[in-house]
Amino acid sequence: MILAIVLFVGFACLGLFVAGVCLGRWMRSPSPPQADLQAADDASLFLGWDGLAPEERKRRLALYRERVLVRSAEQDRAWLKQCLEGKGEVPRTTRDF
């Protein structure tokens, strides 16, 4: 009787260990290869967001942040150029992102 209980507990622990290892490998599996993100538009960066690994999410957010900063710098440069050329004061209240 005691031997049956010990064997049952042993096999239950072994089964939980194997299930944990399999689940860990499945959770750690890399994202499927995708096209070059530099060529992707902003909306496609966030497609399948829930299924991405945390590292991939950080990489995509960094790329999006970089794009937004570049666009903002270009708009600021164009506005400053207009002001310096004397084409009139253009309010900077709205931006087209």
Protein topology:
Elements: H1 2-28, H2 42-45, H3 54-85
Tell me what the structure shows.
- The protein contains 3 helices and no strands.
- It is mainly α.
- It has a domain at 37-85.
- The longest helix has 32 residues, at 54-85.
- The radius of gyration is 27 Å and the shape is rod-shaped.
- The model has no long low-confidence stretch (mean pLDDT 82).
Summarize the structure.
Helix content is 65%, strand content 0%. The protein contains three helices and no strands.
Short key terms for the protein model shown above:
97 residues, mainly alpha, 3 helices, 0% strand, rod-shaped
**Helix residue percentage:** 55-70%
Form type: rod-shaped
Helix/strand order, N-terminal first: HHH
Structural class assignment: mainly alpha
Low-confidence stretches: none
How many beta-strand elements? 0
Rg, Å, rounded: 27 Å
Biggest pleated-sheet summary: none
Q: End-to-end distance, in Å?
A: 73 Å
Average residue-wise pLDDT: 82
- The helix tally amounts to 3
How big a fraction of the residues is strand? under 5%
